Amino acid sequence: MAISPTAEGFRVAFRRPSLTLAEVAWRWTAGATAAALLLFGLSEYLRTLPVTNGELLLLRTRHPYLVGEAIAHILRGSLNRVVISALLAGVLLAVLWIVAASVGRMATVRALLDYFRREDGGKVLSDGPANDAERDVASHVSTKSESENNALPSLLRLNFLRATVVLAAAFGFVGAAILAGFASPEAHPKPALAFIIFLPLAALIFLVSWALNWILSLAEMFAVRDGEDAVGAIVAAVGFCRDRTGRVFAVTIWTGLAHLCAFVAATTVVSMPMGFIALVPWRLVVAVMMLATVVYFALADWLYMARLAGYVCIAETPEALLSPAPLPPTPQPTPTPPLQTTIDRDEPILSDLPNLAVEM
What is the pTM of this model? Predict the structure, then answer.
């Protein structure tokens, strides 16, 4: 019976919840640090805003235009320092994410490699190889090399490239907005045309950045598995997708559909309490929304670990175990002699001479 990488990935995610906890640990550490830094920076920025008596006078008029001008003037008070602080915080957060992602991915991929190598070895070597295909499987399992010692530098480079892709995508969106703005000048505004131009450009930038990020994240598996450098891991990932396209796409599509269902369910759960905000305390509504969001993030990390386990299963399991066993040949029926429907005239018993059968 052939092994299903998708089913194996979900099975590993169920059997090894510690892998999901490790994934949650490094992801949520970076996310919590970013959220805390954002809240702290916003609080400090609001405290340093200078408010003059003239601006207070404009705010007290409650006229929309005057209030807007007063707020814009207040926010421009320390805007230069805010921009410099935001750039510095973004660089530090990117460094934190690169280090955390590299260490976390190295730990999870090593654990998955140990799991599948032990599983494959037990399946094949328990009864001994019986034919050529099983001998190839046994040699494939027994000759695995432990080449993950120098994986951290390669992972750091790959994650740096992933962060660069995200930054390039952000600049691409800004450039697409500027390019679409040329179609709608202030003298003759055409917002519909600008939107029509911006939408396909933004979709193209998103698809290209997503594909590059996916290839780089897949290359991390080969950096840990084979000890490849960054370029070699990318080449190995591209070759892996070329050689086993169907199985890789199957794992990606099934886990992606599961993630989409989880996103739709979480969005529904988060939006439902907002309809009761006039009936229940707002703190309870916020608590329910935050709980649903946290559960969704945990489920998304669990699904990502199932997908990664599926990729490792494809890479570690030989082709002989992934392909379905050939059906035994159907036995051909033995030919039966044709039924004789005529009378043999030479048969002695049919002769009209007496005692001819006895004489014969």
Answer: 0.76
